[in-house]
Amino acid sequence: MSVTFAAALLFAITIALVLLPLMPTLSEWRNRRDTAPLRVVYESEVDIESFAKSFRSFIDSNFRSILEECRQAEDAREGRLGENREYIAVGSDGLSILSEAERRVGRSKRLVLSSADLLLPDRTVFLGEIYAGRSVYGGERSIYRAILAEDSIDLGSSSRSLRWLHAGKRVHAAAGSVLHGRVSAGEVVNLEDGCGFERLRAPRIEFGATSASAGPEAGKEAVPSVVLQPEDVPHLVEVEAGRWLVARKLEVPPDVIVEADIVVTGWCRVGRGARILGSIKSHKDLYLAEGVRIEGSAVSGYGLYVGAGCHINGPALAETEIHLARGSTVGTAQRLTTVSGRTVHSACGVVAHGTVWAHVVGQVLPDSTEAHPGNVA
């Protein structure tokens, strides 16, 4: 082998070693398969309480001394923060926070602060944020930009929130209210019938009037004794590692136990009183009849229809709509979880634990209405 050929070969090998790791990059540069920008997930998208935390920090930085002065003197302080942000701070229950001009037009642009409870009037628009060291009691047909209360928030009927609400203990919205954006509480969120919502988070979320002990712990359901066997399942194409894969559709008989996770490529209907010891996923609609219990998650590629008295221990997720019938529960106080769908329609008497997220619209149905009873019977 000549010296010239050896040198050329060594040079070619060196070039190959340099370019080989770059081949995917060069290919992507030439073909441009992935031109979409990388999605950045902000903390405000993940943490439903992020706005409330930021507002509390703002209050601590700018108004703690003013609120303490108001609390000791039990009177009001008015002023301006910066050039455009007017505020009023009060230190005693029942003090009026509206000027004569604000009462006349039914609208306030000021930041409203209190070291005590805040009692707010009916039919008033509050364009500034509201803070209370204890609780906020809102009148009927009023509109709020955002509220932070260290204790509770109680809104009158047909109220509307535009951005967010957070209470250290409890948020309650009376009938016909519409809560845009985020609503969170340290203990309970309760929405009466006819309320609309988007994103809720609390250890306990109540739709309509519910029993304080509502949920699977409230009663002793009859436990099915018949275990469904793989050979009893039509269109079963795979049984592996505790998972059953079912082609097309599946109808789980009533009053049976399924000791597996289930994946169905079509639609699925689970019969009355059945118990799934794992999770269940349907690529199309998923129907749970009355009294079904699922120890894991319930996931649907289309709609999820949950019958009366059902319990889902894990997440309840659907690509389109979710309907929750009276007495159904999702999660437990010890195991917070998520309900998520484009639309969420709940009958009164439903309890969830954790997060309920209606990406387009959520609705608490009137007390006499059930959520698609024909689909889940």
What report would you give on this structure?
By secondary structure, the protein is α/β, with parallel strands linked by helices. It has a 34-stranded mixed β-sheet that branches. Strand 17 and strand 18 form a beta hairpin. The N and C termini lie far apart (85 Å). Mean pLDDT is 86; it is low at 24-29, 32-44 and 373-377.
Present the secondary structure layout.
Blueprint: H1 3-19, H2 23-31, H3 43-46, H4 50-62, H5 64-73, E1 76-81, E2 85-90, H6 100-105, E3 107-108, E4 111-114, E5 118-119, E6 125-126, E7 130-132, E8 136-137, E9 143-149, E10 152-155, E11 160-167, E12 170-173, E13 178-185, E14 188-191, E15 196-207, E16 226-227, E17 236-240, E18 243-246, E19 250-252, E20 256-258, E21 261-264, E22 268-270, E23 275-276, E24 280-282, E25 286-288, E26 293-294, E27 298-300, E28 304-306, E29 311-312, E30 316-318, E31 321-324, E32 329-330, E33 337-346, E34 350-364, H7 373-376
Quick synopsis:
The protein is an alpha/beta fold and 377 residues long. Helices cover 17% and strands 40% of the residues. It folds into two domains: 50-186, no CATH class; 226-376, no CATH class.
The helix-and-strand class reads alpha/beta
Q: What is the end-to-end distance?
A: 85 Å
Mean pLDDT: 86
Q: Uncertain spans, ≥5 residues at pLDDT below 50?
A: 24-29, 32-44, 373-377
Q: Name the shape in a single word.
A: flat
Q: Give the percentage of residues in beta strands.
A: 35-45%
Largest sheet, if any? 34 strands, mixed
How many domains? The number is 2
Query: What level of helicity do the residues show?
Result: 10-25%
**Rounded to an integer, what's the Rg over CA atoms?**
28 Å
Number of E-type strands: 34
Quickly count the helices. 7
